[in-house]
Amino acid sequence: MSEGTVPAHAELPEPTVEEVSPGVFAYIQLDGSWFLNNAGFVVGPESVIAIDTLGTERRAHALHDALRRTSTKPVQALINTHSHGDHTHGNFIFGPGTAIVAHERCREEVQRANPAGVRARFPTGDFGEFPIVPPMITFTDRAKVFAGELEIELIHLGPAHTTNDVVAWLPEERVLFTGDLVFNGGTPFAAAGSIAGWIEALPALRELNPETIVPGHGAVCGPDVFDEIEAYLRFVQDAAARGFRADTPPLELALATDLGEFAGLTDPERIAGNLHRAYSELRGEPRGTPLLAQMFDDMIAYNGGQPLRCLA
Ligand SMILES: [Zn+2]
Prior knowledge:
Elements (H helix, E strand, L loop, with lengths): L15 E6 L2 E5 L10 E5 L4 E4 L5 H14 L4 E5 L5 H4 L10 E5 H8 L3 H7 L15 E3 L2 E6 L2 E7 L9 E5 L4 E9 L11 H14 L3 E6 L7 H21 L4 H7 L13 H13 L9 H11 L10
Parallel strand pairs: 4-5, 5-6, 6-7, 11-12
Antiparallel strand pairs: 1-2, 2-3, 3-4, 8-9, 9-10, 10-11
Helix pairs in contact: 5-6, 6-8, 7-8, 7-9, 8-9
The chain binds zinc ion.
């Protein structure tokens, strides 16, 4: 397997490195659909701090190569914004000299990772081989990581997209790495978190008053994206409230729901998964209740039985 290249895919542009503020780089993989996530790195005077990795062996190597073309300084720390495999499978690429920092539940979830299950759910993904490497420094609420004087504040929010979401905020540069609390151009997915918790997390993100947002998926953007995320989440809640009252199963409701202004977002089948999450909340179940098996069955059924479109 060649290192440092990503699979040629006619539908996809090459990943790009964007310097969003001096020394602050976003690594962007469009189109941002399943397993095409973003990462980043911050170059300080003597060291580099990385933010997230990528979901396949080849993509993780390509990220590492891009980082090394930008800076040869040691990567002292890697921040995982949450436990999902697209953001953590590539943890191994940085080796034992890099401290991996994440929310405490992120470590637990990564330890429970099931690569065979991921391969089965996304049969078209070119995952390669990746030893699972869980974070070794964990926190519960907030932490700070420094590269010289450059400060990165880690803030836990949610449950929202997952139970272990962390945003990385650079207060001087006003750059916010949101992890999957923002999908820009993609359908938000409350995979393992909470629709209501996600809506409740948005004011805290707005309050930071970021200038530049590096989303978990999709192009670099500004804070207007929060309104788009909120509109979709409220749309899901409204649909779920109607369907729940009428005792309509989530898949049936998803198929009958006109996505309207959200129809152009990538991975629209997430409506079926998101309705499972909203129903769980309407039943009064704890936020973050595991639902992934039913969600994936119904998202595939929503797509007429076709595997989810994974171009990674
Ligand atoms: Zn995720």
